Amino acid sequence: MEKFSRFRDPGTGIQVFLTPVPPVGAGKVFAQILTPVALIVGVIRAALVLVTFVIWIVLNTLLGSINAFLISVFGRATLFWLGFAWLNAEVISLQKRGRAASSVRPLSSIKPTKGSIIVSNWSSWVDVLYISILFNPLFLAPVVAPSPTSAQSSPARSRENSRSASNSPTTARRRNAGAEVVTEANNAPASLGPSSRLLGFRKVSMWDMITASGETPMIRGDKNGKQDFKDIETLARKADRPVCIFPELVTSNNRGLLRMNPIFPASWRAMFRATGALRLGAGQPDIYIISIKHTPPSTQSPSSVLSVPGQRFNPLTHVWSLCASLNFSRSLQVRVLNPEESPSSEAFVADALVATTSAADPISELCGNLISQLSRLKRTGLGWEDKESFLALYRERRKP
């Protein structure tokens, strides 16, 4: 839509916030004819999802704790009713080619343990549910400071960052498995820009993260906010399960990756800059990199991404749209990086250009590069503050 064109990334031309729609005129008449059938299918699917959810909650209440087995069984059942008939994740090596790239090891052999950190891109509540099915982690939700009224507009700030990154001599272009990846250098000091508003994280449940899909980060001091935010190292160390974090902080529409934020502790960043590796000694957490890519929408299948949240009972409106579709074979491309190629691996050594980048958090930048290579999604200069401005404009335009 033209009125949201200022939220198009200037470097790549990608619109990363608007909900993806099918091509204009592709089977539109046929879809209208099948509308009554879709409504009947939607009611049946919605009833099945509701029954599954009620049984899930009852059993979980009786057991008195979050049960990984229940999440696996009922989570998969929920996605099945919504059309995700077959879910599969594969382990990918970025250092190998061809068929060997996805035959490194079975996914069942990858078991993030207590204190491990799972890093992934984020485009929908479906991502949250599927990661829970795979690894049953705790989720870390970002807590930010209120936006200063005198701040420069986010889209303008993104254009400046994008131009400085593209003109910087430290911009690296490299090819991996046929995909061109651009590493952008952020020349702004760490104390300025969007990163200065990121105060820390707080542990939340899977359900909290699902309802937060599409929304902006929690603001410290608002009516729903809490003050108990901490850094990722402290939360990971005290967690009794793996923790999952989305370095983009907000959902995109899965057409490109948003700007990665400085999520890792300052001591980790300093070590990484000095050595090109992450060697923290005894008790070092393992970092697992995941990419999730959704299939494009069609006339019979609305998008499974949730970039624009519902104003009430989020994400139930989106769940209904999936129920009332005639697609019974949705799929996700879920790829897990071979742990031996992760930044926390003993054998890992970063490229000199990545380790010495002027970005506020070189580890987060590296994770962004790896997710980009896994998913074949391009990185953009837009970030969570742009999403904040986008939602404000979108909701203003939607007012009667």
From TrEMBL:
The chain crosses the membrane at residues 37-59, 65-87. Residues 150-188 are annotated as: Disordered. This is Phospholipid/glycerol acyltransferase domain-containing protein. It comes from Tilletiaria anomala (strain ATCC 24038 / CBS 436.72 / UBC 951). GO terms for molecular function: acyltransferase activity. It comes from the Eukaryota. The keyword Ubl conjugation does not apply. GO terms for biological process: lipid metabolic process. Keywords: Acyltransferase, Lipid metabolism, Membrane, Transferase, Transmembrane, Transmembrane helix. The lineage of its organism: Eukaryota, Fungi, Dikarya, Basidiomycota, Ustilaginomycotina.
